[in-house]
Amino acid sequence: MRLRIWTSILGAALVLAVPAKAAWHGYFIKQGVNFSFSAPDQLKPEKTTYVSAVAGQRNAVVFGVVENNVEYKITVVDFAGRTNDESALIKEAAAPYQERTKVLLDEKDIRVDSSYGYKLTVDLPDNGGRLMSAIYFKDNHLIELKAIVRPGGDYLSSDMGRFIDSLAFYEMRSGEDGTTELKLTD
Length: 186
Known about the structure:
This protein is α+β, with helices and mostly antiparallel strands. It has a single domain (21-181), classed as Mog1/PsbP, alpha/beta/alpha sandwich (Protein Transport Mog1p, Chain A, 3-Layer(aba) Sandwich). 19% of the residues lie in helices and 44% in strands. The chain has three helices and ten strands, in the order αβββββαββββαβ. The protein has helices at residues 2-17, 86-98, 158-164, and strands at residues 24-29, 35-40, 44-52, 56-67, 70-78, 102-112, 115-123, 130-138, 141-149, 180-181. It has a seven-stranded antiparallel β-sheet, with helices on both faces. The longest helix has 16 residues, at 2-17. Mean pLDDT is 84; it is low at 3-20.
């Protein structure tokens, strides 16, 4: 009987000691480019300017959140009016991550649905953490997903891959299933 009581107390203590997993949520964007993805709840939007040597300055929106020492970001850059630059723009977006880093994964010509992209994982310089990124070009928009584990975080967290691999172009969510629509403009 005492063993059963101690086992129950120990089990309850272990359950309470394990930190709760962050709530993940489905998001979709229909404005200009159609895609969906999953991320920790409470994404915050920020308008910014993306600077490209190939195409100049472009309007962009970054949606981001930090959870458990991992920064999740999705950047959407409008390249309306540009044609035949897709592979050059993807290559240009990936280049800064390959400099002064230890490249762990470098996959060119990966696919999500019928769209090609680029995926890479690097250890950042000066023990700055680990970055996993996927970059695609769809409907005149550059779409980049980044998960950055900061120093002291769990470099082996499966949530990085969960975020990067959740991108879908054809499996559109509509909001009826609890997903949230994000807007690229006001």
